[in-house]
Amino acid sequence: MVTARLNAGERSPWNARFWTGFVLSGLVLGLLVPLLNRWVAPDSPFAVPDYLVPLLGKYLCYAILALSLDLVWGYAGILSLGHGAFFALGGYCMGMYLMRQIGTRGVYGNAALPDFMVFLQYKELPWFWWGFDHFAYAAAMIMLVPGVFAFVFGWLAFRSRVTGVYLSIITQAMTYALWLAFFRNDMGFGGNNGLTDYKDILGWDVHLPETRLGLYLATVIGLGIAYLLCRFITVSKLGRVLLALRDAESRVRFLGYSTTHAKLFVFTVSAVLAGIAGALYVPQVGIINPSEFSPGNSIEVAIWVSVGGRGTLVGAAIGAVLVNLAKTWLTTAAPEIWLFFLGGLFVLTTLVFPRGIVGVFRQLPWPRRRPGAPLPIEAPIAAEKRI
Amino acid sequence: MKILQGTCRAALFAVALFGATGIASAQTQGTIKIGVLHSLSGTMAISETTLKDTILMMVDDINKKGGLLGKKVEAVVVDPASNWPLFAEKARDLIAKEKVAAVFGCWTSVSRKSVLPVFEELNGLLFYPVQYEGEESSRNVFYTGAAPNQQAIPAVEYLMGEEGGGAKRWVLEGTDYVYPRTTNKILEAFLKSKGVAADDIKINYTPFGYSDWQTEVAAIKQFAAAGKKTAVVSTINGDANVPFYKELSNAGIKASEIPVVAFSVGEEELAGIDTKNLVGHLAAWNYFESVKNPTNDGFIKQWHDFIKNPKRVTNDPMEAHYIGFKMWAQAVRQAGTTDVDAVRQAMYGQKVPAPSGFTAIMNTNHHLSKPVMIGEIRPDGQFDVVWQTKQAIKADAWSPYLPEDKGKIADWTYPWVCGNCVAAKYTD
Amino acid sequence: MPVVEFRGAEEWVPAFAGTTVKSIVHLFRLGLLALFLFAAPLSAWADGLSEAIAGLGGDSFAAKEKAVIALAKSGEPRAALILQALAGDRLRKAPDGRVVIIDTGRGSAKLTDAATGQPVADLAPEGLDRIIVNNRLRGAIEAALGTLTLFSPDREARLGAAQDALRHHSADTVALLEKSLAAEQDSEIRAAMQRSLAASQLFAGSKEERLAAIRTLGSATDPQVKNLLDEFRYTANIDPDLYKAAGDALAAIDSRLRWIGIGANLFQGISLGSVLLLAAIGLAITFGVMGVINMAHGEMIMTGAYVAFVVQQLFRAFLPPDLLDAYLLVAVPVAFLFAGLLGVLLERCLIRFLYGRPLETLLATWGVSLILQQAVRSMFGSPNKEVANPSWMTGGFDVVGGFMVTWNRLYIIVFCFVVLGALALILNRTRFGLHMRAVTQNRDMAAAMGIPTARVDALTFGLGSGIAGMAGVALSQIGNVSPNLGTLYIVDSFMVVVFGGVGNLMGTLVGALSLGIVNKLLEPYAGAILGKIAVLVAIILFIQRRPRGLFALKGRAADAEA
Predict the structure, then answer these.
(1) CB of C275 within 8 A of CB of C475?
(2) Which of B355, B401, B414, C134 lies 20 to 30 A from C30 at CA?
(3) Of the candidates B321, B269, B322, B320, the residue with the CA atom closest to the CA atom of residue B47
(4) Whole-model pTM?
(5) Complex confidence, ipTM
(6) Which residues of A touch B181 (CB under 8 A)?
(7) Residues of chain C contacting residue A384, judged by C-beta atoms under 8 Å apart
């Protein structure tokens, strides 16, 4: 069931309605939050206190990660249960840069080596740490490492037409293997403790509220760009091919499209986005460690997307923010039983709102959309055949 | 209309975003809040839930006795869910939003490392109750668990000695993270200083939650077959211990032949293991439930009354929380305020009669003086204390056996006022 | 008494020879000889008995050890009884200094005065202090009890002593071993004695004797013999012939040990494979046959383990202790039924609404798994629960040369194959199995033929969950029982099913065993973590070669999976 319409009466996906929503959300997130944080008295009920800023930043990082998964899952039918790995790889690249910025302020005061290396009796910096003193190099690596990793992995997988659950499970195997590997202290990435105790980013003290706000704004901008990029891809011709191959890959192949290339491209882009999300995440939460690679984390990303509404982009972002908001709130409000709520939420969402939050919104009785509205690209439920 | 719709969605989104966070905690006057930061779900819940209950018990107790500074103490319990970034988030939440006077929490080293910058930035106060690797003395943390010199080194000395069987060959078996790595590094240096050859030390690391111990146990047996008396020092953590001990007992490794001394296995862990065939294997702690003295009897009774289950055991980290909470309460009384800086100053030299039967003293390096005890497992899952120090031992934040720690001082009083320095901060 | 036997005794009390207190060893040696070699109770020493017994209640371990030695020296028949009570934690000290033996069989505790052997009526068990032993004392007691003697009437004890003599070889042992060898009938013990004798002669005898000794030792498969020969080869001024002979013997032992090592690794691999297989069979049905990604599968395993715990507790509380060993036999069917019912419930209430949306069942069942975990945590608490091995699953046996097979692992391997066999029978030989296969292949056609597909779905899911429950009972015998139990196995289970090929039991079998064996063969070289990583990478690469697993379904059924 290919729902993308190709007829001439179609409305542009970049119409005024879209831009209004985009700019409004941008204003709320990028302008209102800083305003309420900086210029409203702290005791006012409208104030956004300092501690909330990195928290919001964290949610938005998750939103970028969810977007990147929705791009491959919602539009190309690739359910990656290893997206947390790309996120963590990007995070580690950022973490390495931040570790190099510590200089002599570490526990052992060694300028040449991070603390954990002094401790494990490294004589010199391992080669894969070279260059991370420079932000530009680190920034390049943040995109390159997950990108190249995804490219190689995807090339192997898509070329030999590994699809469906098989693909999901081997992506899980990938993140599981990385998880185990990064736990090893001998890997040179700090083992279980990971990388932490950062001091500066680009010369700014990471503990200052101003830096935090800056990082938050960078995340808002990152989210905006990521969203535009994803939307650009999904409404382009390539996006239509992706949708088609999600629903009937063999037919698309028979029509002469190279599904391998299309999937590979979108998978790599998605991994890069996940890596950027990870890089923005690390300075805001202050630690990166191997638990980010855990298979459970990656499954959770799929759940955010599902809750928000798969194949809608904006739904993925909303799902990520809402689920994590619920988690933050419940772990304090009901620390003993919050898993019941969260588990129940997941069960209910699938049973009652199979199209997620965005799906529910679209069904609400407010002004109906006229025919020809932008791509109603819900996941076609019937398309996933029973095994 | 379209714009209306878009705005509608954006507004709902914003409401959802701020709705939950806006639920400000109603600041009840006349209470002192403390934070409890222990995982109640996820992998660490196995160990940490008991510590949450311990603090709730202490709070209950102090409120029954009239509270603190005339106010009730209120525990704010959160669940960081064994997720390390979530630990940092919750710590920030507790200090900045809930405005707690002190936080009792963390178990793993990584959770402590994760929250450390938050406590230092917001000038909070953390009481950390678990034996750990040392190499740290933060202004904002009081370490009530054992440092390596209060656990690992005495245990090895005991096994080397006549009483312990005179071990000559050593297997250092640990989970691959920083606590076993540090402990084994210190032990290796210590053993070598005692003339043990490098060939007689075998070090092995396994991942968290490791469950298939066949190969490792066979390797230990083989290593021990060389003729010299062999002992195993286990820094295996949490989940991996049950399958390890099951394999050990089924492979017929008897304590009188190859004793295994553990630093992370206490009464609570043994409650999940059938100990019939483990009799005689050892553990080193600063407290055992089987210790007989009035303070401990009271502590055990208090625990059983609170948890309403006479079968629940007490253990070393619980005792550490007991000491930590009492000390904090005493320091608050002495300072007359819960202000972090004043309480910190009042903490130094604070004494608490501990269930171990000794008086625990807070030192200026933010670590305790506590006794060291070696216990042998008995069939009912408790320990018999077979050796203990004559007096409380002062914890070293920095180990004299590590070359990189050379000359490092942790002392938060004048003229040092630092946790990691080689020269005093102030000179006259 | 011949002096040589006196000196030899030092070697055949190995638990004691390890300690360094020479004087105590010497005293003790005397006592043992008196007790076991000559068994002549010397009445003069009996006077010291009550004093020695009082000494057991002493404060220091040294005092207790002295008392143990004195008891052994006394030669009193009661001494053994008292020492056994001490080793078994059944000796108590009364406030007035009396030492009593406590017997807590069925009913109330029975107290006996250790010195007189008379029942004690005037003491309550609660008012008594335990008399604590430590490892060193435990070793002394064991030795004193004669379990390690070469002349014990107990066959196992003699065997152990004969083997232990190898470690404490010396010229002095020779005479003692020769004497015991002359009296020994059992061929296995004789072989062990001969080996120990050879070990002693290696360092003491003439050149011919030594050569003969090396030949005897060369036929051994014991890592200790290897160490011994190694040690011998590097003694100073060794005869070149002996050096060469020792080298040849070493090479022979080495190659045998290498094969034994590989054999041991294979067994460990099969054991790990059987664990993986047990965890994965249930998933192979729900995921493989029904196409449901059941993330709550691990929690089904966990409930099985908790069923084992509950059944064990019920047995402990309500049934006589001799029946306790049977709890496992009851736990298996109960776990099957419980987890099976839970599975049917899950299918009827949730999963049936999600058929045809495999990736959404992932989400819903993940939610279910969180709820189940938290439910168990709320009911049983977070800490691990203790599930004991029944006595018939405790311990193990030494196959050859340090290759130890433990009973619990052996039983689990057997159990795993029984379950797999039963499942294959159900699938291929029963009506339900036929229905199941029919629904798997073509649901609509099966429905048209009158097969109640909805019921088949529910039962299939129940079957898969029930098997997971039984797996949980098995896993409770080797690992921990905690709310997180399931999460440890879920990822591995998926790997096994996908590697073997979805929808194929044979694939699951081969997949699980090969993963287990490869993992264990790699482990000695790469270490536990790298070995596992290597296996995971191999699976990823393998799936590229065979995108549908080891045993892929062929034809149209395979196509429909996409």
Answers:
(1) yes
(2) C134
(3) B269
(4) 0.86
(5) 0.87
(6) 119-120, 185, 191
(7) 356-359
